[in-house]
């Protein structure tokens, strides 16, 4: 056991080291030379602005750090989607912060940038959190304008959200700290209050070059839309600040005077650390994802005092359901059990698979948590639902539908952590991205796809070989092996949590030891938004 534990620990610690190394690179944005250029202009970088704005020593939960990772290589990449987003604290008040990173293509908007900004607004809307925009962007990246500009979930949706958020009473503060061009000019001006930094901040629908070509007028950008123009002539901005620091200090003053709002009222007591050593998670999670393990070992190292109240413990054992506290917050946990279990009927059930009895149990548990106003936490290591004639005849689709319906219609906030596998319909039932988790994060051990690499590669191989044979082509064993290796390599790349994080299918990748922080800050955010909708599962399969 000790040898196995040490092997697992070494493997997971190596993955965490790789994660932290990748994050260090991401934090440099467009690189050190670009950072020096921003400093030479008297500007702070996006991350420096956030660090200065937020309360000293307070937690910051970044989301979307890996957005755009390994994408747009043909144009030099777009680290972090050219924008930094997260949940932090200003004057003790939780808020969302969005800061354009001018070191990345002058803060230009790529398709993933729009998606990430919309995610930030979604988090603000769902949790009724104030939002701060630190604007410094050259506008749409023109070579990709067709992927950014016209569709429902493109750039324009951001300004629609500005208007809707304002009508909902969600505070929006914007600081123009660099360029703010064209349609992007609407974002700060549709916010409740707009600040502008003298000398570096500018906002206009068209810059001087475009004005010259459009109407023949010769004018410089500062006169056209600088701080003096908009603070003293047009009245477009509300506050003129001499530098970045003064603008950020002023935002802190605005936050200092805000009134309180009603809370959702989720149960919280004094937080307590797990009684068992959290760091043992590294050794308890097998490095070989085929090997079974007991998910309870993981849960007991995530919850306060290592105390867990199981629900229907001896029934539907491939899903663990029960109540606990995380950092003082009451939670209902739904987790995939990865060890092989035996039902009272004598059936051996594979870990990580959802059977009819476990789906039935989870549906009932989820409904109970909604009844009692307890947030839900999903811990995913799921291969999917059980297949085969026995399961089909037993109504697995019906029971799965019941679980999906109970979960999808939940009105309590949901939080999802991808511990290991997240395959197919299992991802859906366990509250994947499509089911509106307030936050969804992955451990470096996660894999996300419609099915496992081995299953997918063999299926794709069979299709390709059949296609070649139908055309009369002979496929030698050597060619078949080479084909399988190529398919497997491509599919495995797409299974990676970094592939998922790059596309914002998950909000980020975390060290397992950060799981409690993610869930706690997430529930604290959700507590700002009282539940207004009654719980109704609609027509449910029984």
UniProtKB/TrEMBL annotation:
Lineage: Bacteria, Pseudomonadati, Bacteroidota, Cytophagia, Cytophagales
Domain of life: Bacteria
InterPro entries the record matches: AcCoA_carboxyl_beta, ClpP/crotonase-like_dom_sf, COA_CT_C, COA_CT_N, MCCB/AccD1-like
GO CC, alphabetical: methylcrotonoyl-CoA carboxylase complex
Name of a matching Pfam family: Carboxyl_trans
CoA carboxyltransferase C-terminal domain: residues covered: 276-533
Organism per entry: Pontibacter flavimaris
Listed GO MF terms: methylcrotonoyl-CoA carboxylase activity
Xref: PANTHER family: ACETYL, PROPIONYL, PYRUVATE, AND GLUTACONYL CARBOXYLASE-RELATED, METHYLCROTONOYL-COA CARBOXYLASE BETA CHAIN, MITOCHONDRIAL
PROSITE patterns linked to this entry: COA_CT_CTER, COA_CT_NTER
Domain CoA carboxyltransferase N-terminal positions: 12-270
Protein name, as recorded: Methylcrotonoyl-CoA carboxylase
BP-aspect Gene Ontology terms: L-leucine catabolic process
